[in-house]
């Protein structure tokens, strides 16, 4: 179906549907250069994105960026670095750090009196 009919079925304007397409929130067109035709897969993808936007109170642009962080490792790393810097994320603990903390806890325990230690 054409964009006008798809937009009507989804309860949005053709302009909003084109905006979502520009953000990358629709499946890719298989035949590049062809006009997009909307089928069940495209309608379902748009409906799912609208549901996520409502559930998490986010915009289509925010959802598109979230998808970008999941699909582009460099973007994911940059966002992770920011999260660490501003304290929204904690650095993963390394095994050596865990062992060091365990040893410090053991050293801080009060020693039980041993026989003959007087």
UniProtKB/TrEMBL annotation:
Domain annotation HTH merR-type: ranges: 1-48
Classification via PROSITE patterns: HTH_MERR_2
DNA-binding found in the keyword field: yes
InterPro entries recorded: DNA-bd_dom_put_sf, MerR-type_HTH_dom
Keywords for the protein's UniProt record, in alphabetical order: DNA-binding
GO molecular function, one term: DNA binding
Entry keyword annotation includes DNA-binding: yes
Source organism superkingdom: Bacteria
Entry protein name: MerR family DNA-binding transcriptional regulator
